[in-house]
Design brief:
The protein has 126 residues and is an all-alpha fold. Helices cover 71% and strands 0% of the residues. It has one domain. Helix 3 packs across helix 4. The longest helix has 41 residues. It is flat, with a radius of gyration of 24 Å.
Length: 126
């Protein structure tokens, strides 16, 4: 494993490998979660909305305007998947991919905001 690393990476690897593992102090997780609960998460909801609303509107418009194309592309994919030939043709618009990616980022922000705001109300039994 160390054969394909340069000298700096080998030194860093040896330094990190020489450090003994240490357990965190008792109550560290509870202190971190308490500090996270105190944070305001309104800005995360705003960022999530700024990513999700335009992307969602664009995707709905794409389905309304090009819905027949999406249906035909799915039918082509299903036909190609069920047959032995690979003659399916479909086109994915780059803006649709970007809108889906931005929607995913918005979901990540919203999930984080939900996790932080709801972390005090539920506890997990160990």
């Amino acid at each position: 494993m160390l054969d394909d690393l340069d000298a700096d990476e080998i030194d860093l690897h040896r330094l990190l490998a020489s450090a003994p593992p240490q357990t965190p102090p008792l109550g560290l997780r509870d202190k971190v979660m308490a500090s996270l609960r105190e944070r305001r998460v309104a800005w995360e909801w705003i960022i999530a909305a700024l990513f999700a609303l335009p992307s969602g509107v664009f995707l709905v418009r794409q389905v309304l305007v090009h819905g027949q194309d999406f249906t035909q592309a799915l039918a082509n994919v299903m036909t190609a998947a069920s047959s032995e030939t690979s003659d399916a043709f479909f086109f994915v618009d780059g803006l649709t991919v970007i809108a889906l990616a931005l929607l995913g980022i918005a979901c990540a922000f919203a999930a984080h905001a939900l996790l932080i705001s709801g972390s005090g109300s539920r506890t997990v039994a160990r």
